[in-house]
Amino acid sequence: MNIVTIQPQPIQGYRLILGYLGMLCMLIGGITLLPLLTLFFYPQDGKEAIYFLLPGMIAILVGFLFYQLIRGKEKGRLARNQDAVIVVSCWLLAIVITAFPFMLSGHYDFTRAVFETTSGWSTTGLSVVDVTHTSHLFLMHRSTILFFGGVGLVVIMLSVLSDTYGMRLYNAEGHSDRLLPNVIKSARIILIIYFCYISAGVVLYVICGMPIFDAIIHSIGALSTGGFSNQADSIAHYHNISIEIITMVLMILGNINFLAHLFLLRGKFRSFFYYCEIRFQFILIAFAIPIIAFLLVNNLQYRFGDSFRLAAFQVISALTTTGFQTMSSFQGLPASFMLIMIILQLIGGGIGSTAGGIKQYRVYVMIKHVMWHLRSLFHSQKMLYTHKIYKVERKEKIESAEILSCSTYIFMYLVIFLLGSLLLSLFGFSLQDAMFEFSSALSTVGLSTGIMNYHAADAILWIGTFGMFVGRLEIYVVIMALLRLRKDGHHYLHTLKKA
Q1: Which end of the chain is less enclosed by CB atoms within 10 A, N or C?
Q2: What are residue 395's DSSP bridge partners?
Q3: What own/partner pairs with CB < 8 Å and gap ≥ 24 does 193-196 have?
Q4: Would strands 388-390 and 395-397 be described as parallel, antiparallel, or unpaired?
Q5: How far apart are CA 429 and CA 22, in angstroms?
Q6: Could you give the CA distance from residue 143 to residue 141 in angstroms, rounded to a whole number?
């Protein structure tokens, strides 16, 4: 008698998606509980522990139940763009779950709590929290979100799990930096680099006189390019040039592709400094600082030394999309000053880094494309050119498909920027302030003219929330997820009609 063994089918479709989301939900629950470690040092905040215990434990329990759908079972391949559905869904879950402590405290409604956590996960730094009347527990909660938002939820998941198809999730979250052949090891290397830089930042801040709690908050805020501070006047509170220099170094490090960091740490300085984004970044900084310094001297009568110090810090803060500030306010500044800052915010940081914005690589490719095109106009049409740029380690050919992808992304980004700015201006704000504020949200910067605050209209905060979310995950991922959900929804309805 022949016994036929039926092989179990691999888990696929939305059952697989729910299983992945279960894993990520458990991870988010653990992240929500992490700030409770602060109570060992600040036990007076113990009465607020319940605000974190409830959502954290519920998230872990619910995540565990959904994880059972795939636990110990063979996983199939995700269908096209289902990886984007997972990434967008897990970020929405993270935003909502970590918003519950704010809502349970009774000081924030759903809109303001979600705005705050979206700002944290997207590493923006816009805030509706009055840090002068906020406990250490909630301040650490914001910085914990910044920490994990900077490296990305998928990187955290891959660093503790082994998953055959994790590379697609890794790429969908916006990581192009495959540091090692194995994506799991790449994720762990990213975490190690990230943690070591933050630890070094904390030590240097303490040496320069910053209290240890402040040092942790600001080191995370600088390297994650998030910009959350526990001081109402941000870095300006310390009036310490050493602290400002450390912050600028950390912001620049957070702005650099993680793959470039690996070459820097391995001593491959030539590969590091030849990388197109590194050179482009320093050209932008060198170009913008003197102009901003001149505007401060000429329009606001600052002394040259003070203006150069302020200009250096604010240019780096804007370009790296961090949002720390040493200026008292961005209201009433010259239009030329605001325009330069808006441009820097829109360009943003390095691709595959913790920073936001269009990304320096895309802008660099488009500038080179314009130069190549202009050169072709003055040469024979019979001459063929191979267009190359320096990436990390070597010079690589740029295909027309990549140029098209960069130009399409920049076009969509600028359309969203203009629409968001227009919507804010409808609330009575000047177009200049509206453009500055929405570019800050969309590029996940965090510098503000004061439009988005605790007392702002709900609609204004939702416009900012949308900008931060789309800016962090990048437009393509959100569009792919929506198109996949639309397609699957139509298929499901069609199946129901047939039944």
Answers
A1: N
A2: 390
A3: 193/258, 193/261, 193/262, 193/265, 194/150, 194/151, 194/223
A4: antiparallel
A5: 43
A6: 5
The answer to whether residues 171 and 142 touch, using CB atoms and an 8 Å cutoff, is: no
Residues facing residue 390 across a β-bridge: 395
Please state the separation of Cα 43 from the chain's center in Å: 32
Q: What value does the mean pLDDT take over residues 366-371? A: 91
* 370 has a pLDDT exceeding 50: yes
Q: How far apart are CA 313 and CA 323, in angstroms?
A: 10
The rounded distance, in Å, linking the Cα atoms of 99 and 62 is: 17
CA proximity to 75, closest of 25, 15, 12: 12
Structure tokens at 125: 């730094």
**How many CB atoms neighbour CB 497 within 10 A?**
7
Is 489 exposed, middle or buried (CB count within 10 Å of its CB: 0-12, 13-18, 19+)?
exposed
The 10s digit of each residue's pLDDT in 51-109 is 999 999 999 999 999 999 888 777 777 777 888 888 889 899 999 999 999 999 999 99
pLDDT tens, 55-68? 999 999 999 999 99
d(CA 270, CA 240): 33
Query: What are the tens digits of pLDDT across the range 166-201?
Result: 545 545 555 555 544 455 677 778 788 889 999 999
**Structural element, H or E, at residue 418:** helix 400-425
> How far does Cα 182 stand from its chain's mean position?
24
Residue 294 CA to residue 291 CA, distance in Å, equals: 5
Compute the distance between CA of residue 285 and CA of residue 492 in angstroms, rounded to an integer: 52
- Residues 146 and 230: their CA atoms lie apart, in Å, by 13
Residues 225, 330: Cα–Cα separation, whole Å: 19
What is the separation of C-alpha 295 from the centre of its chain, rounded to a whole number of angstroms?
30
Render 217-234 in DSSP notation, one character per residue: HHHHHHHTT----SSTTG
| 401 neighbors 349 (Cβ within 8 angstroms) | no
